[in-house]
């Protein structure tokens, strides 16, 4: 098996590899966008429903009797807990997690990336 020095890449090949990596990273982050947007909307709607139901539940003088007197609030709470158990909170922040992990790896190569996956080349550190 040959080591990494057996087939050195020239500058053009390195540039093409970086461009291909950047394209693929941007495609992947962009593909997460629609599902992330849907999950955010679902989470916002269910949270607003839960808050609205909680407001009505707290204002009701029969609050201590039972949650079954407030089925809207009860159902909203159950759905909200179910969404969190299903991992909706991970889906909402997935693109930023991917970008942060890429930044961590790319830092070793004096590079970074923005939230869309576009590479940012940093200047080389001065040799001392």
UniProtKB/TrEMBL annotation:
GO cellular component: cytoplasm; Nem1-Spo7 phosphatase complex; nuclear membrane
GO biological process, one term: lipid metabolic process
UniProt-listed InterPro entries: NEP1-R1
Main location: cytoplasm
Keyword entries, A-Z: Cytoplasm, Lipid metabolism, Membrane, Nucleus, Transmembrane, Transmembrane helix
Location(s) in or outside the cell: Cytoplasm; Nucleus membrane
Membrane topology qualifier: Multi-pass membrane protein
Annotated transmembrane regions: 41-58, 70-88
Similarity comment: Belongs to the CNEP1R1 family.
Protein name in UniProt: Nuclear envelope phosphatase-regulatory subunit 1
Organism (species): Branchiostoma lanceolatum (Common lancelet)
